[in-house]
């Protein structure tokens, strides 16, 4: 996997993935785009949410929505690494099985999400979920 980050102006950069997708990274708060640390947090949520949806669909659950709400704590002093990350999944659908949703979240956290597996070596990671009827 390859990527490129190019300076645009001030503390604003454009990232381009090998597949040609572009994002804005901005060290200014607030800036034109999310900060690099916000992108790491979004990556964790996106990776895990993809797993949860995929696992539930394979389990023939009728899902209509899946949100990963993330909260993180950072160290007070530089480098301001993440010290804790919590992912709360809100899964919406028709007659969803609580057991299957719990198992999907667990499988993502413990086996499939490569971003979570990488981050958990240095960060305390926790998760929870709730189910809403569609």
From TrEMBL:
It comes from the Bacteria. Gene3D superfamilies: 2.20.25.10, 3.30.300.20. InterPro entries: KH_dom-like_a/b, OsmC/Ohr_fam, OsmC/Ohrsf. NCBIfam families: PRK10738.1. PANTHER family: PROTEIN YHFA. This is OsmC family protein. It comes from Oceanimonas smirnovii.
């Amino acid at each position: 996997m390859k990527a490129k980050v190019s300076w645009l102006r001030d503390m604003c950069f454009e990232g381009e993935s090998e597949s040609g997708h572009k994002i804005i990274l901005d060290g200014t708060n607030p800036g034109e785009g999310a900060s690099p640390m916000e992108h790491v947090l979004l990556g964790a949520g996106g990776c895990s949410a993809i797993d949860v949806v995929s696992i539930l669909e394979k389990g023939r659950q009728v899902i209509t929505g899946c949100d990963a709400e993330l909260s993180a704590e950072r160290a007070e002093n530089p480098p301001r690494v993440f010290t804790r990350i919590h992912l709360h999944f809100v899964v919406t659908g028709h007659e969803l099985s609580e057991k299957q949703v719990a198992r999907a979240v667990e499988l993502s956290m413990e086996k499939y999400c490569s971003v979570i597996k990488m981050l958990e070596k240095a960060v305390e990671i926790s998760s929870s979920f709730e189910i809403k009827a569609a």
